[in-house]
Write a structure and sequence with these properties.
Layout (H helix, E strand, L loop, with lengths): L1 E5 L2 E3 L5 E8 L2 E12 L6 E6 L5 E3 L7 E6 L4 E6 L8 E13 L2 E9 L3 E5 L2
Parallel strand pairs: 2-11
Antiparallel strand pairs: 1-3, 3-8, 4-5, 4-9, 5-6, 7-8, 9-10, 9-11
Length: 123
Amino acid sequence: VQLQASGGGLVQPGGSLRLSCAAAGSIFSILDMGWYRQAPGKERELVATITSGGSTNYADSVKGRFTISRDNAKNTLYLQMNSLKPEDMAVYYCKADITDYSGGYYRRSPDYWGQGTQVTVSS
């Protein structure tokens, strides 16, 4: 199983970006999914999470500006980021709790991580 994040880039303050994270492989089910970010010199922090049923949770710093969503049929996670600020600049990582099926066995891991996508907010 692999998570492939995309959609990062350079944007001016006040601009928008949409991140995507596609899960691929022998996936049986995906429970919680989330976005995290890590700025230089700082620890990785939670941005937003979403359950398989669509319940969401956001860091206070992004509430009202970011929207997390998922397409369960496509095993894809999204993060719509609006009104971006310089302090949002970081590498953004997706994470998922995935059960895969391989070789006749089901295996669950809550810690599948994508490779990260850079978001730069600068004028």
